[in-house]
Amino acid sequence: MLRVSELYIYPIKSLGGIKLEKALVTDRGFEYDRRWMLIDTNNRFISQREIAEIALLQVEILQNGLKIYHKINQEIFIEIPFEPTTEETITADIWDTPCEVQIVSDEANTWFSKILNTPCRLVYMPDSTRVKIDERYDVNNGITSLSDGYPILMISEESLQELNNRMNEPLPMNRFRPNLVCVGGNAFVEDTMREFDINGNRFFGVKPCARCVMTTINQQTSEKGKEPLFAA
What we know:
Elements: E1 3-9, E2 18-20, E3 25-26, E4 29-30, E5 36-39, E6 57-61, E7 65-70, E8 77-81, E9 89-94, E10 97-103, H1 106-116, E11 121-124, E12 131-132, E13 143-144, E14 154-156, H2 157-164, E15 180-183, E16 195-198, E17 201-204
Parallel strand pairs: 14-15
Antiparallel strand pairs: 1-2, 1-15, 3-4, 5-11, 6-7, 7-8, 9-10, 10-11, 12-13, 16-17
């Protein structure tokens, strides 16, 4: 019988994730998941695809906000409140999808620009912003956060094990940045799960996740490799 084995959120898009014991399901995914992101000078989102060193920035949830620190040198950090300190709003771009967001603070912009050695700004998705799911896969007029397109990404432990059986060196789960990890079924069972329930919350498996180059980035060192995209 399938059961949930791990839960994760990624408060700032593309930064280090947080493993949870329990998660609150909201109208656009798990609470705090991908409600913040970095944007470039063209207001387009920035990810590890462009700057692999983003993987070295870890997020921690505090009582009143977020703490972001460098995984290798944890003395380098910044704390930001849950609510932005500016009133400035802009339209950001996520894969050609416009999204109304709010600038977090000048301090955050300066900190991230310096540590990543590139001009960037940190933005927040307010509750008033509603990004709709691709209508080709939508169920119940769903919305998402600042994710690449969908509120929840799911994987099974068996799927990762099956992949690692083909690898010279096994990969950790964090390469795939899931929100929900299950265990107790066959490998790739998640690809066939069209509708399921967890503690009274209804989930719909609308489409498989496309292969992504971010799976080739070591989340502890930011080094790029070829696997698992070249695995048999």
